[in-house]
Write a structure and sequence with these properties.
It contains 17 helices and 14 strands. The chain is α/β, with parallel strands linked by helices and 426 residues long. The strands form three sheets. Strands 1-11-10-9-12-13 form a six-stranded parallel sheet, with helices on both faces. Strands 6-5-4-7-8 form a five-stranded parallel sheet, sandwiched between helices. β7, α9 (209-218) and β8 form a beta-alpha-beta unit. The chain is globular. The chain starts with a strand and ends in a 7-residue tail after the last helix.
């Protein structure tokens, strides 16, 4: 049963401060990474057989396998993938940026170049579920950024095959290479390279605790997007909504993971009780009822607030991954949102639109990190290089200032490098 909280002052630790216990997998992941660094492809073959029960003859998915996989996908679903990809491209094209150059002072040019990383690695989860949406969301921004080599890893089934819908999404998104590896070993391969798998500059994509820990451990060797936690949804809704709609939206995230968090914030206690009852009706009807049940019982909450101003105080303190604003004139409330990954406005905008189709990215900050981080975007695949040019007269105008500043920091060689060019002339 979902918890209903009416007194925020006495329940703040329960609402804002609970940490879910996590299994420590750091030592296991560290061993896997070292094994891949030492034995390369050999380790990947052995670990894939150990964890995925697949005995592979090749790590890379061949072009023939890709075409065969795509041919198995229903034409209607291929059409939906193409529509989704078109929307994702249109949204992310707007994120492209140009460098700049300033030359307002005589003899001085300063500027910034914006360049893509050369190689990006995409991790796509496998196992019991296939996520073609993750392929589109991660690969399309990389290609728009101009990444030359987009490398995807995803675990195979026990027959050494990749789900056809994953292959179809990869082809539509423009993925350059696909490898049949998953888990921490895939992250290690992308970070350090093996005989077959190229070393990349950035790794993006969600995964289980082992994948998240591996990304954490290889950070610094490569860049990563984020350490993603369990999925979250928060809905701000009033009593004008239908309880069945709000319950369905809460369960859309609860079915992801037993550790997922589904929270409703409302100023109407009677509506809160209706939603609670509707959740109980809908859970048994779900294919993933066991997962949704565990999520709702462990982390589900309905927070009853005194008014909508307090509702948005709760929103900004929790900084949810997904935020639905199911109110009249929802754009009026958008300005109140300071911390959220992605915002869904109005009574006809379920979070599933963002997961699959609208075009906004679904790789989002979790666990309150929306306070300081952002959704995956084209920017994640870009790097910036500064440049400076001073001619002789320009340097002469400022060299005493540079000397003075450097000496204040006790760095006399820095100071000397500025003035030495004019010593012989004096």
């Amino acid at each position: 049963m979902i918890k209903i909280i009416q007194d925020l002052s006495s329940n703040r630790s329960e609402i804002f401060g609970v940490e879910t216990a996590k299994k420590d997998v750091s030592s296991i992941v560290s061993e896997i990474i070292e094994e891949v660094k030492k034995d390369g492809d050999g380790a990947l073959f052995a670990l894939t057989e150990k964890f995925d029960k697949a005995k592979l003859s090749s790590l890379r998915v061949s072009q023939e396998e890709i075409e065969d996989g795509v041919s198995c996908v229903e034409p209607a679903f291929l059409e939906v993938l193409e529509k989704a990809a078109k929307n994702i491209r249109a949204f992310h094209e707007k994120q492209k940026r140009q460098g700049f150059e300033l030359s307002e002072q005589s003899g001085v040019v300063v500027g910034q170049k914006i360049l893509p990383v050369e190689r990006a690695g995409l991790y796509v989860p496998g196992g019991t579920a296939a996520y073609p949406s993750t392929v589109l969301m991660d690969a399309i921004p990389a290609k728009i950024a101009g990444v030359e080599r987009v490398v995807m890893t995803t675990p195979p089934d026990k027959f050494g095959k990749i789900n056809p819908v994953i292959l179809a999404a990869a082809k539509i998104a423009g993925v350059d290479e696909i490898y049949k590896i998953g888990g921490a070993q895939a992250i290690a391969a992308l970070a350090y390279g093996t005989e077959s798998v190229p070393k990349v500059d950035k790794i993006v994509g969600p995964g289980n605790a082992f994948v998240a820990e591996a990304k954490k451990q290889v950070f610094g060797q490569v860049s990563i997007d984020m350490i993603a936690g369990p999925s979250e949804i928060m809905i701000v809704a009033d009593g004008k909504n239908r309880a069945k709609d709000i319950a369905a939206d809460l369960l859309s995230q609860a079915e992801h993971d037993k550790m997922a968090s589904a929270v409703l914030v409302t100023d109407d206690l009677a509506f809160a009780l209706k939603v609670s009852g509707e959740i109980e009706k809908q859970i048994p009807l779900l294919e993933r009822a066991e997962i949704a049940r565990a999520s709702i019982d462990e982390s589900g909450k309905i927070i009853v607030v005194r008014d909508l101003d307090q509702a948005f105080e709760v929103v900004n303190e929790l900084a949810p991954e997904h935020l639905e604003i199911c109110l009249d004139e929802p754009f009026r409330y958008l300005e109140k949102v300071k911390n959220a990954g992605s915002v869904f406005l109005g009574r006809y905008c379920p979070e599933a639109l963002g997961d699959y189709f609208a075009g906004t990215n679904h790789t989002l900050p979790t666990s309150g990190t929306a306070r300081f981080s952002s959704p995956l975007s084209v920017d994640d695949f870009l790097k910036k290089t500064q440049y400076i040019y001073y001619d002789k007269n320009a340097l002469e105008r400022v060299c005493k200032d540079v000397e003075y500043f450097a000496k204040k920091e006790g760095l006399t060689a820095h100071a000397k490098s500025a003035v030495v060019r004019f010593e012989d002339e004096q």
